[in-house]
Design goal:
Layout lengths: L5 E5 L5 H13 L4 E5 L1 H11 L10 H5 L11 E3 L18 E7 L1 H8 L6 H11 L4 E5 L6 H12 L3 E2 L13 H16 L22
Parallel strand pairs: 1-2, 1-4, 2-3, 4-5, 5-6
Helix pairs in contact: 1-7, 4-6
The site of flavin mononucleotide has 16 residues, from helix 2 and helix 4.
Length: 212
């Protein structure tokens, strides 16, 4: 346990590439990551990235592919989503924050109402009660009133709601640029240095000129 550890939960919203890229970035930044995935998160991973992860026999290479090579086993600590005995289920286990990325509206609802039905909900609960950074990266559209209220409840309880909404003012040239924009904004919330996006007001001269 170290106070600089981070928790990353991947749930069943569209946006698996965000979660995978974020994990790569956190590891690259030298942070130890406590990783947990929901069963729906595994389904989305398979659908979107063709990566097959087994929750009962987790292998980092199944999630990260070649990017897993060279990552020390102690840097990514996997926790089964039903394991309430994991350290991250307790406020006495110190962390620097938690990200749910991608975050389904089901998980948003569970966090908003303190349901703690799995380790992901419980760890989010812990981060809220301990007043630690909790970043939720929801993806759904359109949003109905209950979903909007649940997001508002999470924000009122202290979470940062950071929807997976890539910007276009940066002139993304690829899907990877769009992914990196969101992951860069998440890293900003965690105080992790990165060069994933060009910052407005600092490097605007490098933006392509608008067409005539
Ligand atoms: C391929 C796929 C894409 C999905 N996309 C979304 C989505 O973008 N947003 C969302 O809230 N739910 C989405 N769902 C539905 C959730 O996975 C489902 O509500 C699930 O119960 C969420 O459980 P979890 O929060 O434990 O991961 C998707 C499901 C699948 C299989």
């Amino acid at each position: 346990m170290a106070g600089s550890d981070l928790v990353l939960a991947m749930t069943g919203a569209s946006g698996a590439p965000y979660g995978v890229r974020l994990l790569e970035m956190l590891v690259h930044a030298g942070r130890r990551v406590h990783l947990t995935l929901s069963p729906a998160g595994v389904e989305v991973l398979q659908q979107e990235l063709d990566r097959r992860v087994c929750l009962d026999h987790f292998v980092l290479g199944d999630l990260l592919g070649d990017a897993a090579k060279g990552i020390p086993a102690e840097q990514v600590l996997y926790h089964h989503y039903r394991d309430f005995r994991a350290g991250i289920a307790s406020g006495s286990f110190l962390t620097a924050g938690m990200v749910v990325c991608p975050c389904s509206m089901g998980t948003v609802a569970a966090i908003a109402h303190g349901l703690s039905q799995n380790l992901i909900h419980r760890a989010a609960d812990v981060h809220l009660k301990e007043k630690r950074r909790l970043v939720l990266v929801p993806r759904e559209t359109p949003l109905h009133l209950v979903q909007l209220r649940n997001l508002a409840a999470c924000a009122e309880a202290g979470a940062v709601v950071l929807p997976a909404m890539p910007a276009f003012y940066t002139r993304p040239e690829s899907l990877q640029d769009a992914v990196d924009f969101i992951v860069g904004r998440i890293c900003d919330q965690l105080g992790i240095e990165h060069k994933l996006l060009r910052r407005w007001g600092i490097t605007t001269e490098t933006y392509p000129a608008p067409p005539d």
